[in-house]
Write a structure and sequence with these properties.
alpha+beta; Butyryl-CoA Dehydrogenase, subunit A, domain 2
């Protein structure tokens, strides 16, 4: 700070809001988005996030990480982290769900930038209609290689036929396209490696089934998607081979760590709203939690700058994973402080904020979980990050 007056002004803002520039974060990506989103409460959005998803499409915020050359916003990693945290503060489930959309697009953008025409074509199609992608990656279980997928794509004369099950799959209701990792098979069943496939959500053989019954993030549309002999053109299946395939997988993990962590910080910011503004400055628990959230975001932003600055892939991945681990280690404790600051009256009147406090623990369930950091895309992790318990 350059002066005591400036510092006091900033601290006054921090005491009242965790994210003092929340409207600007959203409007920098889509002008007027903040005003549209605050027309409803977070409580309403946690019952049904479809209005949020519709607003994101209408405002073309779904194109945030599509390169400008492909018709998207071409936002930086720093701006994307800031956006997801702000969205999570207003609509927690929507932030968690759209992380699955943005990270896959960001990684595909790197493939397009490397000259892959198929990737550029898909991104241009997504940008044209501001589509939403659901990401059907592998579930991370301790002791299980992330390449053990359960979805297979059998090569044929007309492309590939995909059969598999993704459970849970966020955005299962609202998705326009489903992106999933598959095991490639020859017509005789012989293995041919792994690939990323992009499936039209309206294609014959795509079915949704109820799966998510928890009240936590119920609005993220995380149900089951069953694919049965779904035809996918060859140009929409990207074999993960060579350096391009390895880099795509690594970029998926890097971006996912940043954006899912930012979204959970946003959930904590939503929980911070339980304490009335006039009581925040005098609450040690609230101010300590607010400072902690901002410190954790600073770590995410440092990792995001490594992406924006073009740091080596290994540095990007390890910084992102370390930042995610720090969020995972500390966020639930900060949520407990915020719940304490809100007071027993809030606890007695509604279960909403207690639910959010519990939801902060769910970041531990996202891949790659500790103890399950093996497989394609994770080869560049340092031993201390890979082996962290």
């Amino acid at each position: 700070m350059t002066s005591g007056a400036t510092e006091d002004a900033v601290l006054d803002g921090v005491r009242e809001e965790v994210l003092v520039d929340l409207p600007e974060r959203l409007d920098a990506i889509a002008d007027g988005l903040h005003a549209a989103l605050v027309a409803k409460s977070a409580v309403e959005y946690e019952q049904d996030a479809s209005p949020v998803l519709a607003l994101l499409k209408q405002a073309r915020a779904t194109t945030m990480l599509i390169p400008s050359a492909c018709g998207g916003r071409g936002a930086s990693a720093v701006d994307a982290v800031r956006f997801q945290a702000a969205l999570g503060a207003l609509a927690p489930s929507a932030a968690i769900a759209t992380t699955m959309h943005h990270y896959k697009i960001a990684a595909l953008g790197k493939v397009a930038a490397a000259g892959d025409e198929r990737a550029g074509t898909i991104l241009a199609e997504l940008a044209r209609d501001a589509q939403l992608i659901a990401s059907g990656g592998a579930e991370s279980l301790p002791g299980r290689d992330l390449r053990s997928l359960g979805s297979q794509a059998v090569r044929g004369a007309d492309g590939y036929r995909i059969t598999g099950l993704k459970r849970p799959c966020s955005l299962s209701t609202s998705m326009d396209t489903m992106s999933l990792m598959v095991e490639l098979r020859a017509p005789d069943g012989a293995p041919e490696g792994y690939a990323q496939a992009f499936v039209d959500a309206r294609a014959q053989g795509v079915a949704r089934e109820p799966f998510w019954h928890s009240p936590i993030f119920r609005a993220a549309e995380s149900h089951a998607v069953q694919l049965t002999d779904v035809r996918v053109p060859q140009e929409r299946v990207f074999p993960l081979v060579g350096e391009t395939g390895r880099r795509f997988a690594t970029d998926c993990y890097t971006w996912f760590q940043l954006l899912i962590s930012a979204s959970y910080l946003g959930v904590a910011c939503c929980l911070a709203e339980a304490t009335p503004k006039e009581r925040r400055a005098g609450s040690r628990a609230w101010t300590e939690a607010a400072a902690g959230i901002r410190r954790l975001e600073a770590g995410l932003l440092d990792a995001a700058r490594a992406i924006d600055d073009g740091a080596p892939a290994a540095e990007q991945l390890n910084l992102a994973m370390q930042a995610r681990d720090q969020v995972e280690d500390e966020l639930a404790g900060l949520g407990n402080l915020l719940l304490r600051a809100a007071g027993g009256g809030v606890f007695a009147r509604t279960c909403f904020y207690a639910m959010l406090a519990g939801a902060l623990n769910a970041i531990a369930f996202h891949p790659p979980q500790r103890g399950a950091r093996e497989g394609i895309g994770l080869e560049l992790l340092t031993p201390d990050v890979k082996g962290r318990d």
